[in-house]
Write a structure and sequence with these properties.
- It is found in: Golgi apparatus membrane.
- It holds the Pfam family Gb3_synth.
- This is Alpha4GT1.
- It comes from Drosophila busckii.
- The protein is of the alpha/beta class.
- It has a domain of 245 residues: Spore Coat Polysaccharide Biosynthesis Protein SpsA, Chain A (Alpha-Beta Complex), CATH 3.90.550.
- It has 16 helices and 13 strands.
- A seven-stranded mixed sheet has the order 7-5-2-8-11-10-12, sandwiched between helices. The chain has a two-stranded antiparallel sheet with strand order 1-6. The protein has a two-stranded antiparallel ribbon with strand order 3-4.
- β3 and β4 form a beta hairpin.
- α2 packs across α3, α4 runs parallel beside α5 and α9 packs across α10.
- The radius of gyration is 23 Å and the shape is globular.
- It starts with a helix and ends in a 5-residue tail after the last helix.
- The relative contact order is 0.11.
Length: 394
């Protein structure tokens, strides 16, 4: 009915330009809502509806319900025997929502289940491998935020090469989490029940923001974005830190909090701020905005320069300058990909712990394996197995 009304009204607009403007306005008013439907259905199963999520987690076929099934569901991080070591774990979150679907049935056959199989991009695998390579005494936990299946080790089907690459490191663990169980018993449980998170205009980004603070509250340790490359060990860096992205904002792509004491208090403050200041219409308000506001309260200033120069002011909470994690700002993200800027970029990041390649902007720009770009050189040195398994392009 909503779509039929504009067509009727358009008949009375004889001027072609007016008709075009009219339809443009209709698209602006209705198009966003109409385009939401496909991913809203995915979100309903992956995150929003508890019962549908439980059903998706328990999908079975005769093969998967056998004593030795070819595919198995990733273990829940809260229920697995091997759990994250508090304060000694590096966490990554994969928050893409790949809804298990039923394939169209052939004539005379029942619908065939389509399982969400474990998958990573080469760049995600690189982030994980580089963390594992440089931090062998830390556990690396990759948490998938939707029901995710993997091939059984006894199956004739091999894991994808990128998965094999990261699992060759003994300190890498792959787990799934159920958003509702993960929040249960924490200060943010009741807020999640309210459903405000699911009305966000940037839902997947804000679920990622939600989870990073929740994970640090549960376990402490180090949180890293999936679009980083770790360049050196972070094992001996004292906990309770983040990094400045600019002279006005801290960033949430690299954070460390102790699992107890002051670090746990900071994590609790982040959860409170997330709830109190949540804005589903602002992309950065609930990620970098949270840690920026909390640090301003801890340090008693909004001046990032004062946070950097005087650690006592921040009661032991460390704010690293941009060179530590964000030496190349987002506006210059192409520097990681341009061969003519290779030496300049490598020199600029020589003292960094981590480089952040700004996937939001750079994800569509592939680089040929073996080409002379800074990102390629980082990958070749710091995630060699993932780089080799990437294929022709990284």
């Amino acid at each position: 009915m909503l779509l039929r009304l504009p067509l009727v009204l358009a008949r009375y607009l004889h001027n072609g330009h007016l008709r075009l403007i009219f339809f443009a306005l209709i698209v602006l008013l209705l198009g966003g809502r109409l385009l939401m439907y496909p991913w809203q259905d995915d979100v309903q199963v992956c995150f929003k509806d508890k019962q549908q999520l439980e059903n998706a987690e328990s999908l079975t076929t005769p093969e998967t319900s056998s004593p030795d099934p070819p595919i198995i569901l990733l273990e829940d991080v809260l229920q697995a025997d091997r759990k994250p070591a508090p304060g000694r774990t590096i966490f990554f979150h994969e928050t893409s929502c790949h809804r298990p679907k039923r394939k169209r049935p052939r004539h005379g056959h029942n619908p065939e289940l389509q399982f969400n199989m474990l998958q990573l991009t080469a760049r995600q695998a690189c982030a994980i491998e580089s963390a594992a390579l440089h931090n062998p005494n830390f556990q690396i936990f990759v948490l998938f935020a939707s029901p995710t299946y993997r091939y059984n080790s006894n199956s004739s089907q091999r894991q994808p090469p990128l998965i094999e690459a990261i699992l060759s490191y003994k300190n890498v663990q792959l787990r799934r989490l159920n958003l509702w169980r993960y929040a249960a018993g924490t200060p943010i449980e009741a807020w999640l029940e309210d459903g405000q998170l699911f009305r966000s205009s940037y839902l997947f980004s804000h679920i990622s923001d939600f989870l990073r603070y929740l994970t640090l509250y549960r376990y402490g340790g180090i949180y890293l974005d999936m679009d980083v490359v770790v360049l050196r060990s972070m094992e001996d860096v004292p906990p309770n830190y983040t990094g400045a992205e600019s002279f006005t904002h801290l960033a949430a792509g690299v954070m460390s909090l102790a699992p107890t004491g002051f670090g746990h208090e900071i994590a609790a403050s982040c959860l409170r701020d997330f709830q109190q200041n949540f804005d589903g219409g602002d992309w950065g308000n609930n990620g970098p905005g949270v840690i920026t506001r909390v640090a301003q309260q801890i340090c008693g200033t909004k001046d990032i320069t004062l946070m950097l120069d005087d650690r006592k002011r921040c009661m032991g909470f460390k704010v690293f300058d941009r060179n530590a994690f964000y030496a190349v700002p987002w506006k210059h993200w192409r520097h990681f990909f341009e061969p003519q800027l290779l030496e300049q970029t490598l020199a600029h990041t020589k003292d960094s712990y981590v480089v952040h390649v700004w996937n939001k902007h750079s994800k569509q720009l592939a680089i040929k394996v073996g080409s002379s770009s800074a990102y390629g050189k980082y990958a070749e040195l710091h995630c060699p197995k993932s780089y080799a398994a990437a294929g022709e392009y990284f």
